[in-house]
Every structure is written in structure tokens, then in C-alpha cells.
Amino acid sequence: MKNVTDSFLSWGHWPSAGSFGFNTDILATNPINLSVVLGVLIFFGKGVLNDLLDNRKQRILSTIRNSEELRKGAIEQLERARTRLRKVEIEADEYRMNGYSEIEREKENLINATCDTLERLENYKNETLHFEQQRAINQVRQRVFQQALQGALGTLNSCLNSELHFRTIRANIGILGAMEEITD
């Protein structure tokens, strides 16, 4: 390996061109080489670097503008959403109040209907009681009448003898005969 590096660095292989040659002092050649490289880069790379920075600046500004537009759109949407929320809350309050009033109205209607039903049931009960009383009175009357009739028949049977009985039958036949002549 030493032979290869020696062949590049050897003075005999490289023709001497006056004052130009390899300086093997690393500390003296680095700052010079760096300044030459930096000078060339600045001279030739200045336009490219400016173009890159301008492009980057334009992209950043475009991104900022887009962000601002998006922020404004988001703020508008937020305001619309808040407005809609207020409207919905107002409607909900109205529905709630209407619902409460509707519930109260239904409650009153139910109470009134229940009162009407109770009144009808009370009237029906009273009519039923009156009917049952009349039926009971009629049954008592029938029974009293039957008992009175049986008592009268018993009294008549015990008071009538056969001659009185025949006379009554003849009188009734005579009445029936007279009625028959009148109808003819």
C-alpha cells in the first residue's frame, strides 16, 4: 500500500510546473481548500440557494394563507353551528313547554272523563237500585195480593154453602146470557 501512495506523492512522477505542486502540510492546505470550495459554492450556488429559499418561502406563505382561509371557514362553520344550536335549544324549550302544557291538558281531560264516568256509574247504580226497589215492591204487592185473594177465597168457601154457591153461579150465567144478547 505504501507503494501506491508513494507513486502519487512522489516528485519524480509528477512533472514540476513552476510553483504548483502538492502541499503535504495538512494544516496549511485545509483552510485554503475550504475557502476555495466555499467561494465556488457561494458564487455558483447563490442563485440555486436563493431559488430554493424563495420556493420554500412561497410554500410557507401559501400554507399560511390556506390555514387562514381554513380557520375563517372553521370560524364561520362554528358560528353557524352555534346559531343552529341556539335555535334547536329554543325549539326544545318550546317543545318542552308545549309538552308540559299538553300533559296538563291530557291530565285535566282524563280527570274530567273519569269524573263523567263516575257520574254515569253513580246514575246507573241509582237507576239499578230504583229498578230493584220497584221490582221488590211489585213482588211484595203480588204476594200480598195472592195472600189476600187466598184469604178471600178461603173466607168465601167457608161462608158459602152449596145453595148460595148455586145461586151465584146462576146469577153469573144470567149476566153472561144478557151480555150475549146485547152483543148479537
Automatic annotation (TrEMBL):
GO terms for molecular function: proton transmembrane transporter activity. GO terms for cellular component: proton-transporting ATP synthase complex. Keywords: ATP synthesis, CF(0), Chloroplast, Coiled coil, Hydrogen ion transport, Ion transport, Membrane, Plastid, Thylakoid, Transmembrane, Transmembrane helix, Transport. It is a single-pass membrane protein. The keyword Ion transport applies. It is found in: Membrane. The chain crosses the membrane at residues 32-49. It holds the Pfam family ATP-synt_B. Belongs to the ATPase B chain family. This is ATP synthase CF0 subunit I. The gene is atpF.
